[in-house]
Amino acid sequence: MALLACDDGIPPVDPPPPPPAEADVTPEPAAAPEPAEVEVEAPVAADDGLPPIVHVTVAAGEDVDEAVRSAIIRRAIPGAVVVLGDGTGVALRRAYGSRIVEPEEARVPLREDAIFDLASLTKLFTAIAVLQLVDEGRLDLGADVAGVLPELGGRGIDARGLLTHTAGLRGADRLDHYDGDREATLARIFEGAFLGGVGRFRYSDLGFIALGVMLERLEGAPLDAVLERRVLDRLGLRDTRFGPPRGAPFDPERVVPTEPGPGRGVAMISGVVHDPRAYRLGGVAGHAGLFGSADDLARLGKALLTRDPALLSPEGHDALATPTLFREASGRREKRGLGTAFRRGEYGMPIYGMNGHTGPRLWIGDGFYVVLATSRLHPNGRGRIDRLEKELLEIAPGAVGNARPTARASGPAAFGVDVLRRGDFGRLRSLRLGLVANTASRTRDGLETAELFRRELDLVRLFVPEHGYDADAEGTVRDGSYRGVPTRSLHRNGRGGARVHGPSAEDLEGLDGLVFDLQDAGARFFTVGATLHRVLLAAAEAGIPLWVLERPNPLGSASAGPVLDVAAYGSFVNHHPLPVRHGLTTAELAERLVEDEGLDVDLRIVPMEGVDRAARWEASHLRWTPPSPNLPTAESALFYAGVALVEGTNLSVGRGTREPFARVGAPWLDADALAAALSGAPGIEVRVETFRPRVSPYRGLRCRGVRFVLTEAEAFEPVAFGLRLIGALAATQEGRWKPEGLGPMVGDDDALGAALAGGDDGMSSR
């Protein structure tokens, strides 16, 4: 019978810690093999300079997902990158939607490292540089600007007024004033800039253009050089700079376009500043012109939230974060800091920051910051994000406040790919490479391994496992491309309809080496392990080295459950005599396969650092990205190791619901009897419920079922529970439940017989 649970593994976002070792629960593992003769890449201890990663609760993440996706559905935005964080780290960092939506044939997903036109967020950078001059005693906020800007002198204008939009200047002026060279343009716009009404609020781009000119004159350098030295370099903002013509062009695969630009002779403005006045000033101005990534805005947000002394003095930070109430000529009130805006509403301490006309926002609150990087003007200039912005500011305090910090066993936690990057990729620099990865293959700070390799190395071919690169497909996966790199499916139909699960000799032609970086789910029947096995065999056959970048086992290092009887149930999925919960990292599994099968393969391990191998995922608090559509949370991955045992039968295990593997049901199920039989299972509460799965079996049908809720994570052992579930189903659902599909999942007939009889939980090992 075909296996139904062979592939769904997604490391947990919130799984429970490991259960206490008990002689009657933990199987007697097969004799541990001697360490394989493999090369281990030397770890490099240097830190990557990024803050530690923390993670939000599943519910908070879903709230953010729903808010952003709703905005995309109603066409308020084409896509967005959202970063929430606090002074210790990034709590959430996700990309949604598309970078380009028109023309339709050019539609591409939005990347987390996308580059956005920051528009008026440039004003915040200008304000910081001005306040640094105040800190150094080189500028008096209350002095007339005549000494630096004689064009505006003698009218009671000071730097404080320019920073707060109360200097009496126009908001903007005619575009034909910007014709000609830069000095003539500045003379024209300053000549007619003053309207009067000093002290009244009037939002003014001209005021920040004037501040940019002040910085240039006081520093004796162009504005882009001033901001680079004073702000960008101090914070390590690698992606932030002014665009062409004075700046270098941006990577077209990262830059996010704004709106159509027929007036500039282009179909869509992209990589060139949208603001028409900044554009006519050469792309560099105090009010607009900077481009940057969500990550860079997060670095700035963290620096402002923690009041980084490398950026400003305490007084300088106060100037940004302290609101003053001004009145417009109309009588409307406006709260402003020196270069910052403030949000209205019941948010506790004031939330301050800045937004840009094109869409990006950065807000700093009481203990948190919010980055919303989007291009609301794409594709037609009509997007609105006020509602999304408000929703994120309502979600952020609780989401960040309940986020968990990254645990560090010894130094910064690092996956194998992080260690490889810290070592500047070692000998991989000179090789033509193939990479086995998907979207869950990421560095600790969230960069996709495939993207890292595409940028830094000679990535010739990308191999994608079951569910495809985006980890969201069901069934066979087609070959394709990833940002210009050809992809080969390791879950495709070959000649005659036979399923292909590993690289062929043709796939490996021209490669000098293979790299494997997939996140396992810790269960024997999750196909990452089987895919690793096939890749090892292919590398041995081709005579090329294989690097395995180590990742944690989300279920920890403990093993549990029956060991597979390969003679009876061997298959692609059931590829090696392992217990249901095997307790191995990907690197350890590779070493065991090489040792047990005597494979002649050049295996090279790049080990993790600072990660507790014994801990379950939720105890380590590492960032989790689902490697399959069916394990969206850590809790799903934890339940998967046990509840998936019954998936080969005529039950729904919750696929197509928000909590797959945390429930079972069917239209015919006697849920009350099953709940009673499972009562008292360690670490969980069993609740009767009804649900409608969105996928087969029983797609769209009302299922009677039971839901499993963790109450004491440390007491819950998923495999022991799965075997107990088999016994409870056999005892309460006779004549309706069809247990014939259990064999391949349990993997051992003696253990299966014991479980069906409700005996010793079937936990003995072969």
Task: Please tally the β strands and state the result.
Answer: 27
Strand order of the largest sheet: 1-24-21-20-14-15-17-16
Helical proportion? Answer: 25-40%
Q: How many helices?
A: 21
Radius of gyration: 29 Å
> In angstroms, what separates the terminal alpha carbons?
23 Å
Largest sheet: 8 strands, mixed
Strand content: 15-25%
Q: What characteristic shape results from the CA principal axes?
A: elongated
SS content category: alpha+beta
**Any low-confidence stretches, pLDDT <50, length ≥5?**
1-52, 406-411, 761-766
- The average pLDDT is 87
Note the topology:
Layout: E1 39-40, H1 58-73, E2 79-85, E3 90-100, E4 108-109, E5 115-117, H2 122-135, H3 159-164, H4 182-191, H5 205-219, H6 223-235, E6 241-242, H7 276-280, E7 290-293, H8 294-305, H9 314-321, E8 324-327, E9 333-336, E10 341-342, E11 352-355, E12 361-364, E13 369-374, H10 386-401, H11 416-422, E14 432-436, H12 449-456, E15 458-464, E16 480-482, E17 485-489, E18 492-493, E19 499-500, E20 513-516, H13 527-542, E21 546-549, E22 560-563, H14 566-569, E23 579-581, H15 586-597, E24 603-606, H16 617-620, H17 634-643, E25 663-666, H18 671-678, E26 684-691, E27 703-710, H19 718-732, H20 743-746, H21 749-756
